[in-house]
């Protein structure tokens, strides 16, 4: 590693806001720190959050961050964002330290088992979690980090600002992005609305990958995942319980929690673009409540071990999904009609 300008540097007065998704809320806090007025919901849409996939051969619901979309986002800001796979650790940390020493926040993707400040992460399945790094002390072996969406054992979202071991960051780093932004204007209201309509329509109407029919896309991915929550009818109690708990995590935290919140936010902020936006928001709140009831039901049947409830569990989930689909198309169609009147 080449010479580091400072052995210790902490960016002063970093304030973070709690979000509803670790990646989008982290990006929001970076934008906010740099004076760029974009909400977490708007960033979700701009950064391809509607790109949801279900892999039927692996029974996995995936909302992977897409690097090509992030790169395009960087071009709009006249800057560069480098996502690297984390293999060249020496080069990664040179760039991270350099960026922080210039008072720029850094985005990190860390394997959850190395996030030593929260036991919930270490007890969960292995995945990448996004946090911010705003300082380091090489001699003490500490990183100063901020977690904008940290779950506790009850599933409540909290924030964390404090330290974690630099050694654990080095072990767990999967990707990082260094931002050098100051007050750039990203997108107009009209441009955002046009992009929203296009991407939301794609989310609703594209059903499967053209090159791989085992991959379902967008809203259809959610429906297919619910149809296949359970791997087989003849499953043991442990498999049944795990399938229910996986469904809660994948649907609630992977998709539904932030998708509902983001759509409500967009309908509020861009209310003039819709006919009767308040009615649509009311419908979304009812839908969100239905999903919460479903997750509670999944939890109950998981711990009761009542495998005979599998078919009923799928049926209930699909009914809510169909209700969701009707509301989503209503949002799309009323927005399109309003846009045509302008």
TrEMBL record:
Residues covered by the Butirosin biosynthesis protein H N-terminal domain: 21-148
Name by which UniProt lists this protein: Butirosin biosynthesis protein H, N-terminal
Superkingdom assignment: Bacteria
Pfam families, sorted: BtrH_N
Native source species: Alkaliphilus peptidifermentans DSM 18978
InterPro entries for the chain: BtrH_N
């Amino acid at each position: 590693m080449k010479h580091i300008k400072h052995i210790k540097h902490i960016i002063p007065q970093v304030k973070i806001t709690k979000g509803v998704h670790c990646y989008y809320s982290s990006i929001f806090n970076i934008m906010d720190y740099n004076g760029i007025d974009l909400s977490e919901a708007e960033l979700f849409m701009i950064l391809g959050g509607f790109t949801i996939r279900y892999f039927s051969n692996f029974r996995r619901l995936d909302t992977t961050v897409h690097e090509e979309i992030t790169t395009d986002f960087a071009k709009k800001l006249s800057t560069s964002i480098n996502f690297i796979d984390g293999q060249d650790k020496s080069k990664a940390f040179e760039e991270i330290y350099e960026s922080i020493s210039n008072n720029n926040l850094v985005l990190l993707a860390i394997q959850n088992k190395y996030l030593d400040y929260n036991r919930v992460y270490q007890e969960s399945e292995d995945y990448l979690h996004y946090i911010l790094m705003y300082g380091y002390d090489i001699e003490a072996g500490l990183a100063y980090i901020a977690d904008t969406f940290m779950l506790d054992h009850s599933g409540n979202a909290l924030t964390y600002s404090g330290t974690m071991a630099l050694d654990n960051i080095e072990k767990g780093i999967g990707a990082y992005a260094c931002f050098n932004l100051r007050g750039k204007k990203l997108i107009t209201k009209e441009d955002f609305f046009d992009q929203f309509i296009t991407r939301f329509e794609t989310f609703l109407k594209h059903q499967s990958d053209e090159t791989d029919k085992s991959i379902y896309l967008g809203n259809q991915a959610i429906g297919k995942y619910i149809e296949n929550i359970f791997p087989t009818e003849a499953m043991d109690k442990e498999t049944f319980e795990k399938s229910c708990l996986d469904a809660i995590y994948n649907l609630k935290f992977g998709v539904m929690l932030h998708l509902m919140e983001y759509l409500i936010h967009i309908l509020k902020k861009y209310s003039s673009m819709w006919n009767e936006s308040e009615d649509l928001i009311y419908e979304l709140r009812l839908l969100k409540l239905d999903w919460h009831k479903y997750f509670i039901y999944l939890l109950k049947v998981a711990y009761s071990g009542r495998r005979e409830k599998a078919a009923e569990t799928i049926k209930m989930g699909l009914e809510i999904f169909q209700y969701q689909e009707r509301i989503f198309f209503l949002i799309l169609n009323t927005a399109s009609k309003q846009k045509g009147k302008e």
